[in-house]
Structures are given as C-alpha cells and as structure tokens.
C-alpha cells in the first residue's frame, strides 16, 4: 500500500496494518458507503488526530524546556469567551455613576443591612412531584425561605400578602410536562422582576458522588462573570436572596456562574483534606438559567414595563455577543 492510503485490518488483503495510519489530504469519511466501515474509519481518523496533537504538544514542551528562560510566552488559546464582542455597558469597578445607581436602587436596603432576606418559594398551579421536591431542596439552600403551594391563586393577589408579611423576595417555579422549566424572581416591594428559562435540573438523588444533606448554616455566595450593567442587576438580585455574614464553619457555598449568558447554579461543601489541599463536594440541587426578560416593579404580565427582553432573532446574530 502507498504511504497516503495505508492498509486497514479487515480489508480482505490479509496484510498487516502499518503502525501509523496516514490518510490522503482529500480523505472524506462521508464518501464511504458502508455504514460500519464509515464508522470504523472515522474512529481511526479521530485516533490519528489525537496522536498527532499529543506528539506536537510533546515536541513543543521539549523545545520550551531546552530554551529555558528564553522560551517565548505561551500562546493564549482562542475561545468564544476571550473573543467576546465588546459591550458598552461593561461596568468599570471605579465608575462613580454605577456606584451612585447601586447606592439608590431597589437592592440598596439589603446591601446597607436595613433588611433581612425572607423568601417565599411557590409554584405554578397543581405542581407535580418533581417540582415539589425541587422546591423543597431549594428551600434548604436559601436560608429563611418558605415553600407555599398555590392552588389557583393569582400572583397579583400573592404579592400584596407577601409584602404585608415582610417577605423580601418571591420565587415562582413553573413546570411543563412535569419538569421544572421556568423561574420568576421578584424583589419586593418595588421590584424588579426577572424571568428565566430553567433547564438541566438535577435533584440530589440524581447527582453522582453527592455529599450528605446540607446543614442549616448560612452559605457563602459566589457570583462569577456578571460584568455588564444588566449582569450587575441580576447578580445583585441573587445576592439579595442570602443573609449577610455567611457562617464559614458550615463550609457551604452557593455559586452562580455566568458563562455565555447561561447561569449555572451549584451548591457545594468544602472538604479540607489537609492544610494545603481543599476539595469540594456537591450537595445539590443544580440547574441552569437563561434570562428571558427583566421587568420594572413586581410581577405584571399585562401592563408591566420591561427594562430588557431577550429577542433571539435580533440579539443572537453573533456567537461572541453576550449581554450579562
């Protein structure tokens, strides 16, 4: 066989395959008619690609070791995140205008320690078992939260009752086909209200290598990559759900990680293996949120004024454009 084609096992010739399979430059797996043969050739091609990549990586590492201090700096790999299109609303930590707005917005009483978070978690009408269990587990993550299952009671009637009972936030878990698929977060008494699409919900029993049940300690809160004005507002909404002064003795941490406008929630516990080594153990639940709209004031589906609405055809023209 020539160097460009190679002899493959099982081709009927009986000759052994070479140690390294080289495919012609114009090789296309899709041209192979036989499905099993096509799948086999694709796996061999992927294997060859991996070997070449590892060999090149090893070669570059040896060159860097030989050059020592004279080695050129490592190239930064191109990712969608670091190739992000610049957003004019990206917040500068030293911006006085942003600092003034945050000192006078709806969350200022919380950050000034004038209010203590008190959360009401409710559902859509007649929730199914999975949604019920998710609400119960979410209540163990957010301290001072209470679960209420509404039966035909409109949100417009629930909100005044929440305000009268000193609730600071209202969380509504919506479901479709017995699966939680939406989350509404309304800050009381003056808003704003955020609508999220929820996906990838995993309850505690569905998480592998999960830890024991969470304790009643106030967790630490981590907010990652909320860089724009809109992202700051969403991050402040999440922060206002948790009391001040986390109890670090509980070793629990709630993380809201924004990546490409998808907000990943994880709940972990630190495991101190030694003075220098620290591991984490997921407690659950976990879920992913995608912001659909941000509305001024409390929930009002008919006459509410929206600050921001996700319009897919207008906003999703570039994969490198993010809003949070």
TrEMBL record:
**Key word rRNA processing present in the record?**
yes
Q: What does this protein do?
A: May be required for ribosome biogenesis.
Per UniProt, the keywords (alphabetical) are:
Ribosome biogenesis, rRNA processing
Q: Which PROSITE patterns match?
A: BRIX (PS50833)
Q: Where is the signal peptide?
A: none
Q: Which organism is it from?
A: Pycnonotus jocosus (Red-whiskered bulbul)
Q: Which GO terms describe its molecular function?
A: rRNA primary transcript binding
InterPro entries the record matches? Brix, IMP4/RPF1
Biased composition regions of type Gly residues, renumbered to the chain: 1-13
- Record carries keyword rRNA processing: yes
This protein is called Ribosome production factor 1
Region Disordered, as annotated, extends over 1-22, 49-75
Residue ranges occupied by any Brix domain in the UniProt entry: 117-300
Q: Which SUPFAM superfamilies match?
A: Class II aaRS ABD-related (SSF52954)
Q: Write out the GO cellular component annotations.
A: nucleolus; preribosome, large subunit precursor
The gene designation is Rpf1
Q: Where in the cell is it found?
A: Nucleus, Nucleolus
Q: Where is the composition biased (Basic and acidic residues)?
A: 63-72
Q: Give the UniProt record's GO annotations in the biological process aspect.
A: maturation of 5.8S rRNA; maturation of LSU-rRNA
């Amino acid at each position: 066989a020539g160097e460009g084609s190679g002899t493959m096992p099982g081709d009927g010739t009986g000759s052994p395959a070479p140690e390294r399979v080289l495919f012609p430059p114009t090789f296309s797996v899709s041209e192979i008619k036989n499905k099993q043969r096509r799948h086999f050739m694709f796996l061999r091609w992927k294997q060859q690609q991996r070997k070449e990549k590892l060999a090149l990586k090893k070669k570059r590492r040896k060159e860097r070791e030989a050059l020592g201090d004279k080695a050129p700096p490592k190239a930064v790999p191109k990712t969608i995140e670091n190739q992000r299109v610049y957003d004019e609303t990206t917040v500068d930590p030293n911006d006085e205008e942003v600092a003034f707005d945050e000192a006078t917005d709806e969350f200022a009483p919380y950050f000034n320690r004038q209010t203590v978070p008190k959360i009401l978690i409710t559902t859509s009408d007649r929730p199914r078992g999975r949604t019920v269990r998710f609400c119960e587990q979410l209540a163990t993550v957010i301290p001072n939260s209470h679960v209420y299952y509404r039966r035909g009671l409109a949100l417009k009637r629930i909100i005044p009752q929440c305000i009268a009972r000193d609730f600071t936030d209202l969380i509504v878990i919506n479901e479709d086909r017995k699966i939680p698929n939406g989350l509404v977060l309304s800050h009381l008494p003056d808003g704003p209200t955020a609508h999220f699409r929820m996906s990838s919900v995993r309850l505690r029993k569905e998480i592998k290598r999960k830890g024991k049940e969470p304790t009643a300690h106030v967790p630490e809160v981590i907010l990652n990559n909320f860089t724009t004005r809109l992202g700051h507002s969403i991050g402040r909404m999440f922060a206002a759900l948790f009391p001040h002064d986390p109890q670090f003795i509980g070793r629990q941490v709630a993380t809201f990680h924004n990546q490409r406008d998808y907000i990943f929630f994880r709940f972990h516990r630190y495991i101190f293996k030694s003075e220098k080594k620290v591991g984490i153990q997921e407690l659950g639940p976990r879920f992913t949120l995608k912001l659909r709209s941000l509305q001024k004031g409390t929930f009002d589906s008919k006459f509410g004024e929206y600050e921001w609405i996700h319009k897919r055809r207008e906003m999703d023209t570039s994969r490198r454009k993010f809003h949070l």
